[in-house]
Specification:
alpha/beta; 8-stranded mixed beta barrel; 3-stranded antiparallel sheet; 9 helices; globular
């Protein structure tokens, strides 16, 4: 970080630029004059830049000049800019604050806001033929139910999950035993999280993917504390998975504000015509017949919620390139490799060549290297 006068080292709005080792430019803007922020000390700004991987960074003009302008209403909505809370001005607005310099970023709007994916959710299981027919109608994904055997009429089995993927559709899963189970709070969340985990394992849903918990009723604000407790308890029982919530506009907005879960699936039902900018999935029409099957129509804005391959084709072998490992001018007998763009080197041989002590810690499942 550059040297600056001591009076600028205190809490202030900040603007910084940094360069990563691969040449990537990082721009960080921190507000500090609204109702929901405090700014950063210069040392904190340095820590932020290091966190984002900056090798070199510079503190630019901050204070009242640290203001974000955007001509994209979608960007303003996605950043949760609310009047009185944060500084963000619309370029179309009159009378913006005059500053002597600016950092201008020109972006491809199509890349910043890619088109939504069309897909479906349905209660009744899909046959292989129905899945193919729905894919032929342009659907890119399907959302199906993780439920115990007692709910066989809508339960997704592994055979169905495989058939959906073979048809070229990706998958998301939702857990629901009743419309208002979340009113039961943490107790129901623990029970439903355990049940969802068991079903996820049965059908082979990989960790790192989303499992939505349904709030399928017109939940009043008085239920929000219980819904939050339900979601957090479910997440406790689903290690490795990311809990999402299905519900109306108010539920989505409030659970996002509370940080109650990772993903958000909004239904148009009970939403009074409002659509949350937080929605990763948007269910906009119910009980439609598509390819002879009753489904609900959805749009997706974040495909990281899905799991499974888009098509169960035979995987192509990944090429591996062997590389030499040279330490202080001496080539090691052990070789490294570059596979799928990832470079791997023999850790023990490399560490010992540098005079380090290498110990395998079985309990921690880790290699400890001491220099």
């Amino acid at each position: 970080m550059e040297n600056v006068q001591s009076d600028i080292k205190q809490l202030q709005p900040r603007l910084a630029a940094g360069i990563k080792t691969d040449g990537t430019l990082i721009l960080v803007l921190v507000d500090g004059r609204g109702n929901a922020d405090r700014g950063l000390y210069l040392s904190e700004l340095a820590a932020v830049m290091l966190h984002y991987g900056a090798h070199d960074a510079i503190n630019l003009d901050g204070g009242g000049s640290a203001t974000l302008y955007s001509s994209f209403p979608e960007l303003r909505a996605s950043l949760d800019i609310k009047k009185g809370n944060y500084h963000l001005a619309d370029l179309s607005a009159s009378g913006p604050r005059t500053v002597h310099h600016a950092v201008v970023i020109e972006v491809d709007k199509a890349k910043l806001f890619p088109p939504a994916l069309f897909g479906i959710d349905c209660a009744v299981p899909l046959t292989a033929a129905k899945a193919k027919a729905i894919a032929a109608e342009g659907a890119k994904f399907a959302v199906r139910y993780l439920v115990p055997p007692a709910y066989a009429w809508k339960r997704m089995l592994k055979s169905e999950a495989d058939a959906i993927q073979t048809a070229g559709l990706r998958l998301a899963s939702v857990f629901q035993l009743g419309a208002d189970r979340p009113k039961g709070g943490a107790a129901n969340g623990n029970a439903d999280g355990k049940a969802a985990l068991a079903e996820a394992k049965v059908i082979g849903q990989p960790t790192g993917s989303a499992i939505f918990m349904a709030v399928d009723y017109d939940a009043p604000a008085s239920d929000y504390d219980k819904i939050e407790a339900y979601l957090r308890a479910a997440q406790d029982e689903l290690p490795g998975y990311h809990v999402g919530v299905y519900g109306h506009y108010g539920v989505i907005e409030e659970m996002f504000r509370r940080g109650a879960c990772r993903y958000f699936w909004q239904t148009y039902a009970w939403s009074d015509g409002k659509k949350s900018s937080r929605a990763d999935l948007w269910q906009y029409k119910n009980n439609v017949t598509l390819a002879g099957h009753t489904v609900d129509y959805n749009e997706c804005y974040d495909d990281s919620i899905f799991w499974g391959s888009a098509s169960r084709e035979e995987e192509k072998p990944v090429s591996t390139n062997e590389i030499a490992v040279i330490v202080n001018g001496k080539e090691l007998p052990e070789k490294g490799e570059v596979k799928a763009g990832v470079t791997r080197v023999p850790a023990r041989a490399l560490a010992e060549a540098l005079g380090a002590k290498v110990v395998w810690d079985k309990e921690a499942n880790a290699v400890r290297i001491t220099i």
